[in-house]
What we know:
- The protein has 341 residues and is an alpha+beta fold.
- The protein has helices at residues 16-22, 238-253, 256-297, 303-339, and strands at residues 43-51, 59-67, 73-84, 89-96, 101-102, 107-114, 120-132, 141-150, 156-164, 168-180, 186-193, 204-211, 220-232.
- 24% of the residues are buried.
Amino acid sequence: MSDLYRASHRVPRKAVPCLAALGLVAGVILVESSPAVAATPAVTVVSSSSYGPEPDGFLYIVGEVLNAGTDDVTDVHVGIGLYNSAGALLSTDSAPTQLSGLEPGEKGGFVDIVNPATGYASYKIVGATASESPTPPDHNFTLQNVSDVVGLDGIHDLTATVTNNGYYIAQNVRAFFTFYNQAGAVVDVDNQPVTPSQLGIASSGTYTELNIPAHIAYSRSAVVVEGVARSFDPKLDIWKVADPVVREWIERNLGPIGRIQGAMSGAGDLGRVLAGLPAIAARSVAVLEQLETMTREGVTLSPETIAAMGRTEGRKSRWRTLALWIIAATFIAILFAVRQL
């Protein structure tokens, strides 16, 4: 994807090469063209479209990827093939999503800006790949005061206030836009920095996005804000943050609801004990009857037990007799040896 983010029809994209060089956001990190690889089942392309080639010769292919799996993913790339009118493949390319990662069920936009070969007629999405991420992306932001105002010059001015709801200081915070037509198809994507780019916990910033309808005729837009969580906020009040969690636990376990649930659980245990009382009583009566019989008549042994005891005693008696004979023989031998001296 060489020179993909060169100056395009919109001024904001001129800043992207600088951001890519700094490696601030994976959504704008550039990679060289690579052959398309097999699709990852958990990641699918749900919409795409193209416009151009523009007067500068560049073709814009935009779309949206869905994380249909159950794990967080990162390094999401979309494989694209360019074809001529006869359906022959002219070249392949790969485009990353603007967002560095996607949570399960989350969508992210992508854009591929290419200079197609002579004879280009159409493109095809040939697959999407992703890597499992050990940590979720930092999308813990909320938007307030969202507005989309059209000026006298026809330019849309999209603004909002962004608040960091995470537990970390968020750096390199950016807003990522996806624009849709009336049919719900993606017609363009873009991104803008949030000012300031570093937001502490519960702190806010703003963004401004300028969109030119002459190039993008859209009916609605979606925004996802992403940052890079670098460090804990030194001003974080851990007691204040933990208060709602602790309060919920106390109400659930020590409050009226917890007591009712405990009583219900205790009633269930008591019911199980009561249900087993007849069997326990029957076994107790049987044991008492056997003890009474043993006290009155003594212990009764079966014939087999008596025979086994006799055999055991017989074996013990034989070994005792043999031991006595050995001792006697040893004593006689000692006396005989003494008389010979």
